[in-house]
Amino acid sequence: MNLAEIIYASPAKDDEIAIFSNSDRITYGELREKTARIAGSLRNSGLKKGDHVSLVFPNFPDFIYSYFAVISLGGVVVPVNPIFKPYEMNYIFSHSDAKVIIYSKLFEATVKEAAPDNALIVDDLILTQWAENGEKISPVSVKKDTLAVIMYTSGTTGKPKGAMLSHGNLMANSESVIEGLHLTKEDVMLTVLPLFHSFGAMVGMISPLRAGGKVVLLPRFMPDAVIKAIRDFGVTIFPAVPSMFAVLNRVKDVSRQDLPSLKYCISGGAPMPLEVMEEFERKFGVPIYEGDGPTECSPVTAVNPIGGKRKPASIGLPVKFVEMEIADENGKFLPPEDIGEIVVKGPNVFLGYYKDPEATKEAFFGEWFRTGDIGKKDKDGYFYILDRKKDMIIVDGMNVYPREIEELLYRIEGVSEAAVVGVKNKLHGEIPVAFIALKESAELSPSQIREFLRDKLAAYKIPRKYVFLPTLPKTPTGKISKMELREKAKELIAS
Predict the structure, then answer these.
(1) CB-neighbour burial class of residue 388 (10 A; exposed 0-12, middle 13-18, buried 19+)
(2) Does 189 share its domain with 287?
(3) Please, are residues 30 and 20 in contact by the beta-carbon 8 Å criterion?
(4) Measured by CB atoms within 10 angstroms of the end CB, which terminus of the chain is less buried, N or C?
């Protein structure tokens, strides 16, 4: 089945709402018609099966129409972060061989500077005309291993890599998400996670639309706007990254009675500090279920059972169709409680990295995808991420997992955000550096923090330097940017 068929086969009727966006109420009938007409216009503009199309939008309905229109034709969607600079955008346009670029005029200057000379560029004004006047066409037939989307993942070093996701990958993962999150057509999903990112696309768009539910689009995360959207649109599920929950904890004069429709929240994309989760649940009376999954896995691999047993600091159990294990450096599976790399197998696992067979080969142990996450599983089969392999710090030959230190830092009264990174050191190999943002009017000194950690951590794990910032830098998806913090730490140590 062509992935685009999910919006036509969805259990929702034509007159039922599919998307809330600002004051717009877009029905499933309108979604289906606009998508089919844009697909017809793209075909008449020369787009063929297998051609690549970049989309440059914030969370606007135009992204959704364009996404499913391109896929309808058997084309390949290449989502791009709209706040990228021309140099970053040009790399993705060029590397992905984008033949068409569809964009919001909000980003026209950047797109026009970044676009390759031979690409057809289509702005949202033209898109509106296509959606009204184009010839309607139905999705073409494709095989399950036909390429549907190339998601560029931000690497810690070098250029981003394009993870190739097939129709079958995304169909399988959406079925897993619908079952795992108990999604129905009664659900209203708040989508503030960016649609150009795999988490936002799968949990905030593909899965709720396939289930016949409603999607509430917010172009960017602002705490007051999130609270208002939940209240105004009767949101039932709110997926977010941990830093968003930390910010919502600071919103004053809001409690459970302000959000009566909200059933639960989903956290993913980064480890959830236990203190942040507990504070949110105390404040709002709504449970957070932690889950996880890398872009290469479409992306959802695990989640704590909704309404079932949640385990603190765990990403939960593998979702339907997904197998997960803990492996050593040679790919051998390890027993419960042993620490190793989380590996994944299933129909959701990507086809490989675009134009990078070497990186693709390195990403697998046979059929098992290497996530790069260091973790363990317990005797009940629940998985835990201790840290990203790339984030692990080696001090005097001993492994230090930043998350362990961060969890403790969040327990200190007055700490709003915390992150620990490693910096090279001639004597110790690496040393940990802690970055901290304090709550309003809070005061803390490095010596107070060091004293708190002293009886809880071995000496080699305790950060050697503490840096206080008003707020920690974030990636476009709202996660704390460890890459940026590493650069800051290097500068500080060098000076």
Answers:
(1) buried
(2) yes
(3) no
(4) C
